[in-house]
From TrEMBL:
Residues 123-248 form the Nudix hydrolase domain. The keyword Hydrolase applies. It holds the Pfam family NUDIX. This is NAD(+) diphosphatase. It comes from the Bacteria. It comes from Bordetella genomosp. 1. It is an enzyme of class 3 (hydrolase). The keyword Nucleotide-binding does not apply. Keywords: Hydrolase, Magnesium, Metal-binding, NAD.
Amino acid sequence: MNFIFRGDELLVREEGIELPDATVCELLGVRIDTMQQVWHQRQPDYRTTHIARDAQAPTGYAFRKLRALLSELGEQAGVAGRAFQIAEWVRTHRYCGVCATPMVHAHHELCLQCPACGLHSYPRISPAMMVLIKRGDEILLARHARYAQARYTALAGFVEAGESIEDAVHREVEEEVGLKVRDLRYFGSQSWPFPHSLMIAFTAEYDGGEVRIQEDEIAEARWFGPGATLPDIPMRESIAGRMVRANLPPGTRAD
């Protein structure tokens, strides 16, 4: 399988989601033997790369947003996500961050290393927390301020240096909506390649405060109770979509 990315877009057939073969790759100036393997010494026919943002898709193919393709990719969504993260890692670590020497691939593991100073670089993973706050039969959903057509979802944020996941949950909730929470319960996790997150999801019980949004982060945050008409929520393929649907108030349905 050949994964060719242009920014956050994946090259697939215009009809269907078939990935390009070697001939199509060559039309884009991509040689199979120069592509990055998705795994080290495992399934060597899974390869990935990034190409220039102004590259045009060959006839019969199109670049489509990876996020929009997740539901169509099915079981291959996880592989596509990994391929994107590996390609992005290679693209952004061409030179040593200490001495600027071109990096080279290690032979014994998935690693880039500097031949001059010995710096090792591994694929980046950024832990992020997600939390769905519950108050009796109500749940709190919020819409992010940075996206014009954002869906309503659980709160989320990156873990900062020196924090535990639990610390990050309490800090983000207080910063974004001004609330206190308790009784954190682990829901699940999901690799989220936008661009290199590991989303770790919890539910939590409301423990005080009035909703006060952080306007540069949150456009709106509302409680939804039994029988409420829900706004658009995340797709089922995302951990946010699964967590919200698993905790819907009585008499409330979501597509």
